[in-house]
Amino acid sequence: MAKIIYIEHNGAHHEVEVKPGMTVMEGARDNGVPGIDADCGGACACSTCHVYVDDAWIDRLPEKDSMEEDMLDFAWNPDPVKSRLTCQIKVTEDIDGLVVHIPERQI
Ligand code: FES
């Protein structure tokens, strides 16, 4: 299991153990973490699973592919460096301790 820490815009923390092979979006959805809507169910087609990756983790995640990059243009207030779509981040033991910040709103 890998611990993922989701921090809401209001500062509320959610520490969740997520099974490797799932995505960071599924970890939030299955554990009732609010603020990650994931309207398309993980198909990289909605941008409502957007988060800002904590500074300490930006370089430690696999890079975005072009599909994620394009879809992030539709996210609410995206940041060119910190923004990621959580449905595109696979959970592995390597990202144990990942911290993501949930935006004030999704679209
Ligand atoms: Fe729709 Fe991630 S859930 S883009």
Characterize the structure shown.
There is one protein chain. The protein has 107 residues and is of the alpha+beta class. The protein has one domain (2-97): Ubiquitin-like (UB roll) (Roll), CATH 3.10.20.30. The protein is 13% helix and 21% strand. It contains two helices and five strands; from the N terminus they run E-E-H-E-H-E-E. It has helices spanning 24-30, 66-72, and strands at residues 2-7, 13-18, 50-53, 83-85, 98-101. It has a five-stranded mixed β-sheet with strand order 2-1-5-3-4. A hairpin with a 5-residue loop joins strand 1 (2-7) and strand 2. The longest helix has 7 residues, at 24-30. The chain is globular, with a radius of gyration of 12 Å. The N and C termini lie far apart (31 Å). The model has no long low-confidence stretch (mean pLDDT 98). The structure holds FE2/S2 (inorganic) cluster.
Which labels suit this protein?
alpha+beta; globular; Ubiquitin-like (UB roll)
Outline:
By secondary structure, the chain is an alpha+beta fold. 13% of the residues lie in helices and 21% in strands. FE2/S2 (inorganic) cluster binds at residues 25, 38-40, 42-49, 71, 85, 87.
